[in-house]
Amino acid sequence: MLFSIVTQHWSAITDGDDFRQHLQFLSHDNAFLSYYPYVFEQRTLFARFQMNLTNPPHVQFVVKPVFSALGMLANLAPLAGPTHYLEGNVSYLASIDEHMTYLCMLASRSNDSFPLHEKRSHLNISIPTDMLIGTRLNYLLEAVQDGRNDPFRVWQWQGKPPYPTTEQFAAMREVQLPSILLAGSQNVQRGKGLSNINLSLNLRAPWIVSVRVCSDDYALPGQVYGVRVRMVFQDEVLIHWKLSTDGLKDHRCIRTYQIWFKSTRSTDAKRKHKWCIINRFIHTPFMFYQYVSKIRPVSGKRDISSVCSGVVGYYKVRAVDFYGRKGPFSTPVHYGTNATFHFGSSKEKHIN
């Protein structure tokens, strides 16, 4: 629904009628906290759980699909065309940057106007390669789908617990962010006729799909900075950061972020501490990550050795783009148990 509202707002602006002069800003009401048993059903970006049975009590948040939709909208390029509407309540919007090195198309099928009697959607997308410069184009498709990226449904399957366990939270967070549907590359031979990037998708409605295409002429990833580590509960921290966008660098061709950790636990004094990636195999498209050292993701893909155990130690983050090019690491920051959060300082730059 949020995507439909935003695209309708954009259509009113691009139509050029008298109504557009009254549209300047689009507000988003999120000025309250959700509470049990309506943690997922109230108009918020996060489901909030007040964990009163722990010592001390604390708060846990789970990302709702509306947050992911906003994050996908943020990937639109500065130059956008009009919103197009198709049968079955499908709409899409295409955008491109001024340097012709980046293209983003968002498409959605929503149930805000009428019920969806046919849940399955077959979507064919064709993108002319001459819309972008460069000799190689890499693309990434992400989606939020009903039943696949739905922590609310997982919580319902769990019996709607008011105080979910660590494992139950892990199961919800496994599906809280967009999933990667396709990723690929296509070489472009200029002057030898037109070619297209052809994609075919099978989706479960309601859904929202992001298609991002980046030229090999696109700038390298910027440096991550402002890394902060906040305590959530025992052996659990929230890590968030910012990305430098100096010059031509920005976030739009970033595929994921790598979070590296090195333990400094006193109990491991005889062991040589090593850096390890704590979000390996976990798609991390946004600038935050909640790390629970004692839990293994439900997918079972992550293999973190004992050197990655615990949360006390140094953290550093870097961005990785569609071509696998890695930006500079952030300044390593140290997290201990005596403060709620820590942020980097220049005197820690010698750590590597």
Could you describe the 3D structure shown?
- This protein starts with a helix and ends in a 9-residue tail after the last strand.
- Strand 12 and strand 13 (236-243) form a beta hairpin.
- Strands 3, 4, 5, 6, 8, 9 and 11 form a 7-stranded antiparallel sheet that branches. A 4-stranded antiparallel sheet has the order 16-13-12-19, with no helix packed on it. Strands 15-14-17-18 form a 4-stranded antiparallel sheet, with no helix packed on it.
- Helix 3 (151-157) packs antiparallel against helix 4 (166-173).
- By secondary structure, the chain is mainly β.
- The chain has 4 helices and 19 strands.
- It has 2 domains: 2-215, Glycosyl hydrolase domain, family 39 (Immunoglobulin-like), CATH 2.60.40; 224-348, Immunoglobulins (Immunoglobulin-like, Sandwich), CATH 2.60.40.
- InterPro entries: GH39_C, GH39_cat, Glycosyl_Hydrolase_39, Ig-like_fold.
- It holds the Pfam family Glyco_hydro_39_C.
- GO terms for molecular function: L-iduronidase activity.
Radius of gyration, Cα only, in angstroms? Answer: 22 Å
In total, the number of domains comes to 2
Q: State the helicity in percent bands.
A: 10-25%
**What portion of the residues fall into strands of 2 or more residues?**
35-45%
> Mean pLDDT score, rounded?
86
Structural class: mainly beta
Number of helices: 4
Major sheet: size, sense and barrel closure?
7 strands, antiparallel
What do we call the CATH homologous superfamily of the largest domain? Glycosyl hydrolase domain, family 39
User: Any guess at the CATH architecture of the largest domain?
Assistant: Sandwich
Number of strands: 19
The first-level CATH class of the largest domain is given as Mainly Beta
**Spans with pLDDT under 50 lasting ≥5 residues?**
339-352
What name is given to the CATH topology of the largest domain?
Answer: Immunoglobulin-like
3D shape: globular
GO molecular function, one term: L-iduronidase activity
Pfam families: Glyco_hydro_39 (PF01229), Glyco_hydro_39_C (PF21200)
Domain Alpha-L-iduronidase C-terminal: 226-335
Domain Glycosyl hydrolases family 39 N-terminal catalytic: 25-180
